[in-house]
Amino acid sequence: MLPEENVLFRGVSREECRRMMSCFKxxxxxxxxxxxxxxxxxxSDKIGIMLSGxxxxxxxxxxxxxxxxxxxxxxxxxxxxxxxxxxxxxSIEIVAESDCEIMFMHQSEITxxxxxxxxxxxxxxxxxxxxxSEKAISLSERIEVLSQxxxxxxxxxxLKIFEDKTPNGQVPQIPFSTTALSDYLCVNRSxxxxxxxxxxxxxxxxxxxxxxxxIRRDEDEI
Amino acid sequence: MLPEENVLFRGVSREECRRMMSCFKxxxxxxxxxxxxxxxxxxSDKIGIMLSGxxxxxxxxxxxxxxxxxxxxxxxxxxxxxxxxxxxxxSIEIVAESDCEIMFMHQSEITxxxxxxxxxxxxxxxxxxxxxSEKAISLSERIEVLSQxxxxxxxxxxLKIFEDKTPNGQVPQIPFSTTALSDYLCVNRSxxxxxxxxxxxxxxxxxxxxxxxxIRRDEDEI
DNA sequence: ACTCCCTTGTTGCAATTGCAACAGACTTTT
DNA sequence: AAAAGTCTGTTGCAATTGCAACAAGGGAGT
Lengths: 222, 222
Fold this sequence. Notes:
2 copies of one chain form a homodimer.
Chain A (H helix, E strand, L loop, with lengths): L13 H11 L2 E5 L4 E4 L6 E7 L2 E6 L5 E7 L4 E3 L11 E6 L3 E7 H5 L9 H26 L4 H15 L12 H8 L3 H13 L3 E4 L2 E4 L8
Helix pairs in contact in A: 3-4
Chain A binds a DNA duplex through α6.
């Protein structure tokens, strides 16, 4: 994907956009699957925008327990600016799940008054605002899931969110393996497995590989 | 607090700011302690900025279980735009903890091209960007806490965050009662109580009312 | 001082979740 | 085709957490 096609530049002409590149000084880098895209060792106001590929933001605590903080797909945005990394006791990394292409730029370059007087500068800032809005919503969804009190409820609310994001006509699926899902829900894998088989046996869920389907029982409420 | 003194207008002259008010058409409302500031029944792009007072964003699920999603203080920002409210099964509300004064405005009014050509319009957008950055960080902190696997770790990481936010020389404190804290950590109150007494007896924590102190045992690591 | 109401602190017991171990399926590498 | 590695699915047992109930403390209002 060309950097100019990124949502950040939506509404900005191709020509203008090229000109802005000299303002923002973006750095575009490629990563192979499995490599580390970023750690948050040193403070920086760099933001990254996924042009292509998939990645996950993970944390390992001092006991080596992995938590998947966030799944990042195309057009996702990440950066220390949006992510708590205060705890020195555990390390946060962004790891490429597939081959990735990522555009890095400094937030200050976007935010500061532009000497070149780019016409569309403020349009970019507004787009960034929208991206941050979306980021905040996806973080809220994450909280929604994690605030469920039982594994079953965590799973259901998580699947419901993925289902809602699935385009019409497609079968909903999770962007993880079951093992990774347990790191995402912050629960024990085998306990999650147990809940999954229970929900399947109750007829509330079908699942094969990463594809799933939720079966509603709205009559229960009546 | 005067609306013009809000962080949203930082770097904007008093005069300019007054002029912008006609652009943004802010609505300033007061709420008494205990009243509901907002529910998210109908979609809107309204954002609220706390000028004074304290509030909490809460959710009640279908079983009546309360979750405190977020504690809002002065200068906090909230709005459906930043908050997942997709789940129809549970209701999200913002409840005033103390008397509050809140400025509401429509995000579209801020974001749209301004016919009045206010000089400082883009400055306001940048400020909004910064507020959203902070919002994202505070949501990430929330995830950091909720992703801990045990009640003890949830409590410690939560207290550590509150401690880090305490100005030098002040005794750190939580913005809740213990009961509310359990709704914030999404755990059972008596189980939380149990963990608290355990940590106290181990000498890792002192706590009285809402004030607390964490005692570090860095030697443990060696 | 008294009542009402809410919060704190505690406990026994039940339910859920975590842990460890293992077998089988599936992928990738050699 | 064999081997190595990772993921899925299961289970028994241990640890943690939730639940319910109760006693005690504190604040607001009468």
